[in-house]
Amino acid sequence: MAAGALQGLKVLDLSRVLAGPWATQLLGDLGADVVKVERPGAGDDTRAWGPPWVKDAEGADSRQAAYFQCANRNKRSIAVDMATPEGQALLHELATRADVVVENFKVGGLAAYGLDYDSLKALNPRLIYCSITGFGQTGPYAERAGYDFLIQGLGGLMSLTGRPDGEDGAGPQKVGVALVDIMTGLYATIAVLAALNHRHASGEGQHIDLALLDVQVAALANQAASFLTTGTSPRRMGNAHPTIVPYQDFPTADGDMILAIGNDGQFSRFCSAAGHPEWATDDRFATNPARVAHREVLIPLMRQATVMRTTANWIALLETLAVPCGPINRLAEVFADPQVLARGLRIDLPHPAFGSVPGVANPMRLSASPVAYRQAPPTLGEHQAQVLADWLGHGSTRQA
C-alpha cells in the first residue's frame, strides 16, 4: 500500500457529529493518524442516531447507527472523560505529541478543562488547533450553538431552495443532506493543510477559527454575487436556474429528466431533436438572455414536447447530440449506475464487530499518494491501549 500524503501526521480529534468528523476523516483518508476522543459509555452522539442501524455479521441490527459510519473511518477511538483530572492530564499528554487538534465545542467550552487553544499552545507551540463553531469565536452570536438546519435558514440557503411562490408546495426548503456541515468539514481540511504548510515554512502553529455561518454565506457563490451587484434578493426557483435557460427538470413519458443546456448550440440541437427547430431561430429563444427573459413562454412549450418520449429514450437521443441531460435517480439507482460502479464509489470495509460495513469512497484520486481505507469506523474505545502505546510509549494501557 502506498504511503498516504499525510503519513506521519498526528491528529487529535475532539469533535463529534459531522463537520469536525468529516474533516478528520478526510485527513485520515490521506494518511494521517487520527485519534478520535469519545465520551466513555456513550461516544460520539451519532453512534445513537438510528435507526437505521449497522447490521452485525448475522444480519441483525447492532446498536451503532448508520449515521456514524459516514464520517469516522480511518480513525482510532479512545474513551476519555475530559471532566476528570486524569482525563485532562491524558489529553494534555496526547496534545504534546499531536500536530493537529480539531474540536467543535461551544466558544470557551474547553477552557475549563485546559483544552482550549491557549492552554495547549503553551504545551505545544507547533500545534495547529482548528475550532469549528456555529458562528465563530467573535461577534454577537458567538455564544450560540449552531446547527446545520438553523444555518441553512439564517445563512440564506433556504431562501433560494424550494418551489417558487404561487406553485403547489411553495416555500423554503433545506437541502436533503447536512450540506453546511459537509462544506465546513471541507473548509476545515483546507485550512489545516494551509496551516501545515505555513508551519513547514515558519515552525509556527496557529489557531483556525471556522464558523458554519461563514461557510454558508461564502458558499452562496453566484447568488451572493448577484445580490451584491443588484441589491435584489434572488427568489426561489425550484429546479430552475436564475441565469441559464433551459436548465431544470422536465417531465417525460415515464417520469422526469434534467436538461442542463448551457449554450445556444446545445439549445439548437435540442430543438431539432424535439421536432421544433423553429424555436432556435425565434428571437425570443435564440440566445440565452432572450430565453431567460421569456422563460415563462418557452418552458411550457418544452414540457409539452418532453412528455412525448421516455427518460431513457431522451437520454439516448440527446447524448448523441452532445446535449447535457440526465435522470433523477434514487439512491438505489445511484449505486447501481454503471459509472458509479466503474469508479468504485461503494466500498466495504472489514469490521471486528460487524463483519463488514459499507461506505462511500473518497472522491480524491491522487496518482502518487492515493487514499487508503485502512480501517472501518471504530467501536467505542477500540484502540485505547494501542494509541496510548503508540503515542505515549512504555506500553501504557491506562484508562481515563
From TrEMBL:
Gene3D superfamilies: Crotonobetainyl-coa:carnitine coa-transferase, domain 1, formyl-coa transferase, domain 3. It comes from the Bacteria. The keyword Ribosomal protein does not apply. Keywords: Transferase. GO terms for molecular function: CoA-transferase activity. InterPro entries: CoA-transferase_III_domain (IPR050483), CoA-Trfase_fam_III (IPR003673), CoA-Trfase_III_dom3_sf (IPR044855), CoA-Trfase_III_dom_1_sf (IPR023606). Pfam families: CoA_transf_3. PANTHER family: SUCCINATE--HYDROXYMETHYLGLUTARATE COA-TRANSFERASE. This is CoA transferase. It comes from Ideonella livida. The lineage of its organism: Bacteria, Pseudomonadati, Pseudomonadota, Betaproteobacteria, Burkholderiales.
